[in-house]
Design a protein that fits this description.
The protein has strands spanning 3-7, 10-12, 18-25, 33-39, 46-51, 58-60, 68-73, 78-83, 92-99, 107-108, 112-116. The protein has no helices and eleven strands. Strands 2, 4, 5, 6, 9, 10 and 11 form a seven-stranded mixed β-sheet that branches. With 118 residues, it is mostly beta strands.
Length: 118
């Protein structure tokens, strides 16, 4: 069955960096759209970054453009989220999502917590 396992979250000071990983299994990784979402307490889940199934188009949330970078390693069935210049407002649970096409329902991981605080 489909499995998405996120890792790499933690506590970091403002201005710091983290790299999240999402290890995928149970589907043909290279044919799925992959994305990262986040949800802070009391807020709706929002798109952070993602790319289409071909990997040719990437999308970023406005609040993370120029700070976050999504990438994937097809050989390792893994998608990454490099987060630089982290801000307290980036504090949230970060989720990995896989879907057959961009913008439709898909599979979710269990999430990894990112806390940005001094």
């Amino acid at each position: 069955q489909v499995q998405l396992v996120e890792s790499g979250g933690g506590l970091v000071e403002p201005g710091g960096s983290l790299r999240l990983s999402c290890a995928a299994s149970g589907f043909i990784f290279s044919t799925y759209a992959m994305s990262w979402y986040r949800q802070a307490p009391g807020k709706e889940r929002e798109l952070v970054a993602g790319f289409t199934s071909s990997g040719g188009i990437t999308n970023y949330g406005d609040s993370v453009k120029d700070r976050f970078t999504i990438s994937r390693d097809v050989a390792k069935n893994t998608v990454y989220l490099q987060m630089n210049n982290l801000k307290p407002e980036d504090t949230a649970m970060y989720y990995c999502k896989a879907s057959r096409r961009w913008g439709i329902n898909g599979y979710w991981g269990q999430g990894t917590q990112v806390t940005v605080s001094s």
